[in-house]
Each structure stands twice: as C-alpha cells, then as structure tokens.
Specification:
globular, alpha+beta, 5 helices, binds heme C
Length: about 200
C-alpha cells in the first residue's frame, strides 16, 4: 500500500463522521442534514431546552446558552425545545434577517428524522405558526432564543407537555422510560381539541 493511500484510509472514518454529522469543511457553509438531528434527550440540556454543535464546538454553544446576559450563538449551534422543531446557527452573513438562524421543522420516528420544512423568515410549523414571527420578538441580547421571559408570544404547551414530548422522542434508543406525569401530559396533548 503506498503512503498516500494509507493516509486516505486513515482519514476515512473522520470524513465519514463529518458527512454523517452534516458538518463540512472548517470554514465552508453549514448545511444540516437529516442525520444531524438525533434523540433530543441525547443532546445537552440547558434549562428547559437542548443544544448541540455541528462543528464540534459544544463548549462555545453552551457558553452562549448559559450566559446570564445573553450572547450570539456560535456557528454550528443546534437548539431544540421539542423533537420536531430546530434552529441551526449558520455562518455570519448567511441570513442577516434571521440573524443567521435557519428554522427547521422535522418529522421524527424510530428510523430517524425527515426534514419537512427548512428556511429563514418563511418557515411555518404544523400549527400554522411562523417560527421567525415569534422568535424575532426575543429581546436582541438573546439572539432570537425565546424561553419564557425574552419577550416572545408563548407556545400553547405547559412545561409538563414539553418534557413529555422530549422524553417520548421516538428516535431515542433505548426509549426513555416515561414517568406517570409524562403519560398524563401526552394524553392531554393527544386529546381532541375542545369545541
Ligand atoms: C407562537 C410563537 C412561536 C412559534 C410559531 C414558534 N416558536 Fe419556537 N418557541 C417559542 C417560545 C415562546 C419558546 C420558549 C418556550 C418555553 O421555553 O416554554 C420557543 C422555543 C423554541 C426553541 C428553544 C429555544 C428557545 O427559543 O427558547 C426552538 C429551537 C424553537 N422554539 C424553534 C422553533 C421553530 C423551528 C419554529 C417553527 C417551525 C418555532 N419555534 C415556532 C415561540 C414560538
């Protein structure tokens, strides 16, 4: 085996891991793929939501997320509250209107994630809500992250419902054991709307 070939072979697992993560060259555009998304409870929890970083810069994402005064999230950050909605931070200048956030709506099942919608100011979730329409209302220091106190219109979900949706993410292997309160919250979520 010549030298060049053996180097390529040694790099192969790394290149494959990068392709799976959806990450690209250190300074190329950031393109999340369906494989970039995973069981939400395997991401890193921050208060009520979860984060990861496509470029491997989890520490920088956590630093921004944990800053008591708010911060601009670093490129590659993925933020999720529920399994089917994600925000991905792109390179500076990629989408000035959305402060370089890409909004993504996913379908999730035991096989993984399917991207239903992706984009910037025009992505609408399955309940008819425009992601940017709500998230743009966050006070500027929070970089469009809403939580419950940053100035966005609230989501119609209780904390118990959000946790139940997180814990029942069908992509988690092994599945999370649901607590009685999760089962109750899921029943309320799945009940037909009152007329
Ligand atoms: C009705 C307004 C509204 C709409 C529409 C909406 N969100 Fe949110 N979103 C919120 C609020 C409020 C929170 C925080 C809720 C909480 O922590 O209890 C939130 C939380 C999040 C979070 C966790 C970080 C944060 O901001 O607290 C992400 C990621 C997210 N939403 C993505 C999306 C995406 C993607 C869409 C569209 C597919 C979307 N949202 C649509 C209001 C909205």
């Amino acid at each position: 085996m010549n030298r060049k070939k053996s180097r390529t072979l040694r790099l192969a697992p790394l290149l494959m891991a990068m392709a799976i993560a959806g990450a690209v060259a250190a300074d190329g555009p950031i393109v999340a793929t369906e494989a970039s998304f995973q069981c939400i409870t395997h991401m890193t929890p921050v208060r009520g939501f979860y984060v990861s970083n496509l470029l491997g810069h989890l520490d920088a994402t956590l630093k921004a997320a944990r800053s008591p005064d708010g911060a601009i999230y670093p490129p590659g950050s993925i933020v999720q509250l529920v399994p089917t909605e994600a925000m991905v931070k792109l390179r500076p200048g990629s989408s000035p209107v959305t402060r370089d956030w890409e909004f993504i709506e996913l379908d999730v099942d035991a096989q993984g994630s399917t991207i239903r919608h992706r984009g910037y100011a025009d992505v609408v979730n399955r309940f008819g809500g425009n992601c940017f329409g709500c998230h743009a209302a966050a006070q500027p220091q929070w970089d469009m992250i809403c939580e419950t106190t940053h100035g966005c219109a609230p989501v119609p979900l209780t904390r118990a419902m959000i946790e139940a949706l997180q814990r029942s993410d069908p992509r988690c292997k092994p599945p999370n054991v649901l607590r009685p309160e999760d089962v109750e919250a899921l029943k309320t979520l799945n009940a037909p709307p009152k007329s």
